[in-house]
Amino acid sequence: MKNLWCWRCKIEVPMLDQEEYKVASKLYRNGFETGKCNMTRKTRFKDLLDYYKDLTGFEETNPNAIMHHRIDLYGAACENCSKPYRTPKASFCAACGNKKKANNCTESLHKEKPKWWQKLLVLNKAGSN
Ligand SMILES: [Zn+2]
Ligand SMILES: [Zn+2]
């Protein structure tokens, strides 16, 4: 468990690591399998909510929120502002714009140059108005 900034909730929340998440997802599934339609979400996923509270001390009421509070979904902490990168593959920080240090990421290196003829397309468009 680690307190991390959640990009969806826009607050810092306790996020689960792999092992913790495994348990959480099992409880989540149990909620679906054993719950009844007339149960409130809170009753249905009580085990999950209790588990999360035991683990983190955070009283979450929305089981879906717990399922996206998972360290794996986000990138490492930004070197500049320490918020996590929005995804593990993000190339820059969405919070402060800090560029992630290049680590054998080939994607940005192979950005194609615009073709010479693409200029013509732009000119044509402008002229046709
Ligand atoms: Zn969240
Ligand atoms: Zn940042």
Q: Provide the succession of SSEs.
A: EEHHHHH
Low-confidence stretches: 104-108
Global geometry = elongated
> What's the rounded overall pLDDT mean?
87
Structural class by sheet pairing and helices: mainly alpha
Q: What is the number of helices?
A: 5
Rg over CA atoms: 22 Å
Query: How many extended strands?
Result: 2
Q: What would you say this structure looks like, in words?
A:
By secondary structure, this protein is mainly alpha-helical. The protein has a domain at 2-73. The chain is built from five helices and two strands. The chain has helices at residues 18-34, 41-44, 46-56, 63-67, 118-127; strands at 2-6, 11-15. The longest helix has 17 residues, at 18-34. The chain starts with a strand and ends with a helix. The relative contact order is 0.13. The model is unreliable at 104-108 (pLDDT under 50). The structure holds zinc ion (ZN) (2 copies).
Please summarize what this structure is:
With 129 residues, the chain is mainly α. The chain has five helices and two strands, in the order ββααααα. Helices cover 36% and strands 8% of the residues.
Layout of helices and strands:
Elements: E1 2-6, E2 11-15, H1 18-34, H2 41-44, H3 46-56, H4 63-67, H5 118-127
Antiparallel strand pairs: 1-2
Helix pairs in contact: 1-3
Highlighted features:
single chain, 129 residues, two-stranded antiparallel ribbon, 5 helices
